[in-house]
Amino acid sequence: MVTTRTRVKFCGITRIVDAQLAADLGVDAIGLVFYPPSPRSVTIKQAREIASVLPAFVTSTALFVNPTPDEVDTVLATVPIDLLQFHGDESGEFCRQFNRPYIKAMAMKPDLNWTALNREYSDARAFLVDTYKPGTPGGTGETFNWNWLPSKQQVDKPIILAGGLDANNVGKAIAQTGVFGVDVSGGIEASKGVKSAEKMQQFISNLIV
Ligand SMILES: O=C(O)c1ccccc1NCC(=O)[C@H](O)[C@H](O)COP(=O)(O)O
What we know:
binds ligand LARABZUK, two-stranded antiparallel sheet, TrpF_fam, TIM Barrel, 21% strand, alpha/beta, 209 residues
């Protein structure tokens, strides 16, 4: 039997030291938030410094919420980015114009039309499913009902589970849902925008229950 390891992304990294520890812990991807209203938002200079210390095989992800094409192009021209993450109402056409691999975040509701979403984002490398909270596009720190996740028949691309994960619930989340990957931000923080070394380590230790 082949067992696959659950992929892990630590999102909202704002410090080099946190990126280095994430890489040392074997995290697959880190997220750099380019959304100024967020306390986790980074400047281009910060992002370049953080992304530059990542070793091979750790994916640097640039996260946007309804950006202009110029904003994305500027980041791509100046920061070593492997993957784009669109966390707003961006269309498939918008997401694919940059000719970079991208993932699309979905604010989870029980009645999403996955047939239409598969069609719209046919070339997305994964769907990241996150908690729906009006006025807060991400980083809510709240879970949603994992029974709402689409089945493999509904979506045949990887699903990355986000929203309110932490060391206490990640093992259960993986065991219950069998998702391809998990994404965490607030659950590994000491304070908004500052990761906790202890919480990051504990999160990784608790991936398997
Ligand atoms: O983290 C933010 O502040 C943020 C703001 C706006 C859009 C997205 C944002 N984060 C996206 C992520 O990928 C988070 O990891 C995901 O929403 C889960 O966050 P959390 O519930 O805090 O683990």
